[in-house]
Design brief:
- The protein has 132 residues and is mainly alpha-helical.
Amino acid sequence: MGHQYPEALGRCRSLLGRCRRLGEGQALLDGGRGRYLLAKGGALLLKIRLEELRLLLDTYPAPTVQAHRRIRDSLAGGRHAAEAEAAILGAELAALRELGPELRALALELGRIRRECAQKRWALLQLRPPPP
C-alpha cells in the first residue's frame, strides 16, 4: 500500500504536466483562431464597403467619382493587406491543427480526470454532517 502513493503522485504530476502543455497548446490555438477570424472579418467588411462604393460610383457626377475612386483604391489596398494577414494566420492555424490528435487525447483524459474529481467532491459533500 505504501508504494502506491508515490506512484499515484507521480502519475498525477505527469498528468498535470501534460494538462499544462495541453492548456498552453489550446491557448495558442485559440489565439491563432481569434486572430484569423478578426482578419477575415476585417477583410469581409472592406469587401462590403468596396461594393457599396461601386454602387455609389454609378450614381454620382465625375468629381465625386474621382473622390470615390481614391477611396476605393485605398480600401482595396487595405483589403489585400487584410487578406494577406488572413492567409498567414490560416497557415498558423493549420500548423497548430496538426497537433490535434495528441491534444485531443490529452483533452479527453483531462475531462475524465475533472469528472472523477467532481464525483469525489460530491461524495465528500455527502459525507459531511448536515448544518444545524
